[in-house]
C-alpha cells in the first residue's frame, strides 16, 4: 500500500509530530546543514523530510525556528495551511 504524502490527514499528522518532537525531544532539532549531512551519510537524526514531508514535495527541509520563510505556508493547498504565528 502506497502512502499519499500530500493527503490532508497525513500532512496534519506530520506537522503536529514535527512540532511536538522539536519542542520536546532534546537533540531532535537540526539545521539545514546538519540535515543535508545526515541525509547524505545515512545518519538517522531529527526529522526525515523525505519519509514525512511537510508540504507537497518530499525531501524539502523546513527550519523549526523559521516556519514561514518568505511567506511560505506549510501544509497542502487542498486543506491544511499553518502559519508560523499559529504554530507556536
* Strand content range: under 5%
Q: Residue-averaged pLDDT, rounded?
A: 79
Describe the main β-sheet briefly. Answer: 2 strands, antiparallel
| Span of the ends, CA to CA | 34 Å
Which structural class do the helices and strands define?
mainly alpha
**Biggest sheet, strands in spatial order?**
1-2
Fraction of residues in helix: 25-40%
- Number of extended strands: 2
What is the rounded Rg?
Answer: 13 Å
What is the domain tally?
A: 1
Shape: globular
Q: Show unreliable segments.
A: 76-80, 83-88
Tally of DSSP helical segments: 3
Order of helices and strands: HHEEH
Oligomer: single chain
Short characterization:
The protein is mainly alpha-helical and 88 residues long.
Give a verbal description of the structure:
- The protein contains three helices and two strands, in the order ααββα.
- The protein has 88 residues and is mostly helical.
- It is globular, with a radius of gyration of 13 Å.
Please describe the structure with a list of short key phrases separated by commas or semicolons:
two-stranded antiparallel sheet, mainly alpha, 88 residues
SSE topology sketch:
Layout: H1 8-24, H2 32-40, E1 74-75, E2 81-82, H3 84-87
Antiparallel strand pairs: 1-2
Amino acid at each position: 500500500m502506497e502512502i499519499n504524502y500530500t493527503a490532508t490527514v497525513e500532512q496534519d499528522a506530520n506537522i503536529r509530530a514535527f512540532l511536538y518532537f522539536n519542542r520536546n525531544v532534546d537533540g531532535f532539532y537540526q539545521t539545514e546543514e546538519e540535515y543535508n549531512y545526515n541525509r547524505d551519510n545515512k545518519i538517522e537524526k531529527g526529522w526525515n523530510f523525505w519519509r514525512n514531508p511537510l508540504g507537497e514535495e518530499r525531501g524539502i527541509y523546513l527550519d523549526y525556528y523559521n516556519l514561514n520563510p518568505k511567506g511560505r505556508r506549510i501544509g497542502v493547498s487542498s486543506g491544511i495551511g499553518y502559519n508560523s504565528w499559529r504554530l507556536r
